[in-house]
Amino acid sequence: MQTSFINVENIRNDFPILKRKVHKDKPLVYLDNAATTQKPIQVIDAISNFYLTYNSNIHRAVHELAEEATLAYEATRDKVAKFINAKNREEIVFVRGTTEAINLVAYAWGRQNINKDDIIVTTEYEHHSNIVPWQLLAKEKGAKLEYIGVDDNGELILDHLDKYLQTGKVKIVTFSQMSNVLGTITNSEEIIKRCKKYGVRVLIDGAQSVPHLKVDLQKLDCDFFAFSAHKMLGPTGVGILWARKELLQGMVPFNGGGDMIREVHKYETTWNDLPYKFEAGTPNIADVIGFAAAIDYLDKIGMDKVREHEMELTKYALDKLSQMKGIILYGPKDITKRGGVISFNLGDIHPHDLATIVDEDGIAIRSGHHCAQVLMERLDVSATSRASFYIYNTKEEVDVFVKSLNRAKELFRI
Amino acid sequence: MSSADIYREIILDYYRNPRNYGKIQDPDISQRDSNPLCGDELEMHLNIKDDKVADVKFTGKGCAISQASASMLTELIMGKDFEYVKKLTKDDILDNLGLHDLGPARIKCALLSLKVLKSGLYSYIIDKLKDTASADQIKDQASGLY
Fold first, then answer.
1. ipTM summary value
2. Which CATH number is correct for A8-30+302-411, 3.90.1150.10, 3.40.50.1820, 3.30.450.20, 3.90.550.10?
3. What is the DSSP letter of A150?
């Protein structure tokens, strides 16, 4: 039941949901981890323990419950900072998710720094959340949005980046560290190096990378970094925006309200310190506290082990899948250049039909455009099927999946 | 219902060899819609003559259910009275397809073509026939599909 890297059997015991059956008697094979992961009992317990024993609002009241809640909430900030090796805890802003983090930057930094005819550069393999906020900003400012293309191997064509940088008009380059469709791991260091030469800001969407790879922000040297808790064992509704202190200091608030102020007068307000300036209103306290348990869980396993386990599973799956007649696999063939996300099409079976069929066998995969319609256009398909792995997946589950794909082929007479 | 019941020979045949696939030049009705959840696309063209469907064609991209459903719908309404087409219901479509008890996600696939048809009729009735009362009726039908 295990790869050579982690004890999957022990891990699976921590995930109550993996014991349930679907479609009456089929063991659940959960392969939709790029959408959201399951939660271990430790995370579920941390959230319910908060509500059961110290539920309170944070930062303001002086009673004991408030003190405990504030401590737990702020301890999560320290854990996040350590997990991604951020220099300062006040650079960690809690938001609702990656989408909100990117919108915050586009709004609070973008509106101040992007002007008419400036260029914003993104890539063809972005999630809609890293395209649409920039389209809105570009439209408002009369700026241009340009795309780094994707080659036939599923990797970015960095020559495109150079072409845009040479215009001298690029203000920000924004890209995902791992594609949610192709699994491609972006050569982030190289992109950042080229951008720095031109003094261009860099935002990284880490929604798919932080859960699966070791991320070191001090080594990476980008300007903004966004990711979500729910794709790494944590609860939904918690996201992280990390940004350089000096950038956050110069930015206007995204939301106005309680907790983000220092003094409010009738016509004027001064802002609270970082990061509170960007955390208006009562935050998602319980789920932030739950996220700490998710980080602890991943830390205990070790992110290097997580990556090794996923590489072994992905290689096993790719070896099996590539032998199937009529399958088209997307993304890099080189296992070191990709994460545990496998997108494919099988014969003329539409991904929705395929997902319906494998669901009957208890297998949860994703089908559709994966919020990446720009990439679908580039691949010249309307949709793909996608299987994505995490720490609790096994080779046996891959076997069940492959068997189910063969059943789909039979049903479609191919 | 099980996959074996959904993906019967007839559904696969309409998926792979769709009848009435294509476009009509200068149609009386031209309507396009997509399902934002899955990206399925469908466009229908109709010509109406003497209160009858003189011609109907469709183009689209999508799953076997949505494409077979669209193709079978065009056959169902070809040559039929305009009144009959106006009254078509969700159950008529599902009966015609032989698909029942589809889950909430997949029923949208089966009904996308009817939604497109009803929206097209709505524009036609309101713009060309100026019949506001029946247009409102059709609009309600279309929005109540799923």
1. 0.88
2. 3.90.1150.10
3. B
